[in-house]
Amino acid sequence: MTASEIRRKFLEYFETNGHAIRPSSSLVPDDDPTLLFTNAGMVQFKRVFLGEEKLPFKRATTSQKCLRVSGKHNDLEEVGVTARHHTLFEMLGNFSFGDYFKRDAIRFAWELLTEVYGIPKERLWATVHNSDDEAAGLWAEIAKLPPQRIFRLGDKDNFWQMGETGPCGPCSEIHYDMRPGAARGTDLGVEEFEARGSRGEFLELWNLVFMQYNRGADGELTPLPAPSIDTGAGLERVCSVLQGVASNYETDLFTPLIQRAVQVTGVSLAVVGEGDETGPGRIAVAARSSLDPGQVPFGRPSLPGSVAMVGYIRSATQDVLSGKAAAIVTCPITKEGLKAAGLTPYVHGRVPCNDGGISLGQAVIAANRV
């Protein structure tokens, strides 16, 4: 199933269930001084959740382009470290404005994933906020998940808010079991689940946010005019699952870009991870990398330890074409890591590495010299 088909099936499923399909809004939010960039699908509906705006519908669905450099839970530090975080990403979402709540949100998500997309039920796990008995009960009732596949976590993982202020609420996440075949489906405790998740053995597919509160500038929570729903499923992650690959960078959202780099440079492709090495004359595309051109302006603070983005890559692309470097590649940059992969670092703009990190907004080339 291609990315276009996955996106279309998502939107059509919710349209069939009474949701209005709305376009992706601007990456720069309109009339919202609390956010620099759109970081979630719900941003265009913020005033609706707060009761400040009325729409002619109570259900909506979108495929929203987002930037991971704004808001409360952006996980920016994970870009360039994992195979599932990007500076620019696309968020599939469904929204209820005082219409349905937890039961239908869980029912819709489970039905779409297992019946429309055909994801095996035995590979799906759920987390809920540690105070949310209702959501835990609904997962057991609707999805027939056993208790050992429903984990209760705290605010850090299962309470979502768009920024320091604004609509927020407890959430429930759906995770996909990516462990090796022998371990897949075996029971584990909550600490091991979290540890394996941080290693990429569980992939968060979909976050269902039960919008109930507005957080004020003083940090106080006040109830929203009506309990509502805001969900987000990363298109890149859903694609990796449905296309049967281990990394977002192996989906059809990225492979045409990588294949074009191979074609332009005339060298073969090697996807490498930690501990792997690349031979001479091959492009190294790190399994933990970011290839999102031109989405964040210059001047952002540095992020030690990893490459956060590719920034404006026009000049870097010219370097590739002129033979200064074999390919544009971003990955965690350390002297040891580059040496192990047989790579020579080349930082466009002569930005020095900071303890293995680079400055955001600069293009980085780490590739074999040609």
Task: Report on the architecture of this protein.
The chain has 370 residues and is α+β, with helices and mostly antiparallel strands. Helices cover 24% and strands 26% of the residues. The protein has ten helices and 15 strands. Strands 1, 2, 3, 4, 5, 6, 7, 8 and 9 form a nine-stranded mixed sheet that branches. A two-stranded parallel ribbon has the order 10-11. Strands 12-14 form a two-stranded antiparallel sheet.
How are the elements arranged and paired?
Blueprint: H1 3-16, E1 20-21, H2 46-49, E2 59-67, E3 88-96, H3 102-116, E4 124-129, H4 133-142, E5 150-153, H5 155-158, E6 159-161, E7 166-177, H6 190-198, E8 202-215, E9 221-234, H7 235-242, H8 255-265, E10 268-272, E11 282-286, E12 302-303, H9 314-321, H10 335-341, E13 344-347, E14 358-359, E15 364-367
Parallel strand pairs: 1-2, 4-5, 10-11
Antiparallel strand pairs: 2-3, 3-9, 4-7, 6-7, 7-8, 8-9, 12-14, 13-15
Strand content: 25-35%
Count every helix, treating DSSP H or I runs of 4 or more residues as helices.
10
> Main beta sheet: strand number and arrangement?
9 strands, mixed
What radius of gyration results from the CA coordinates? 21 Å
Range of helix content:
10-25%
Kindly name the structural category.
alpha+beta
Morphology: globular
Order of helices and strands: HEHEEHEHEHEEHEEHHEEEHHEEE
Regarding quaternary structure, what we see is single chain
Q: What's the total number of strands? A: 15
What's the N-to-C terminus distance?
A: 37 Å
Average residue-wise pLDDT = 75
Show unreliable segments.
270-335, 341-370
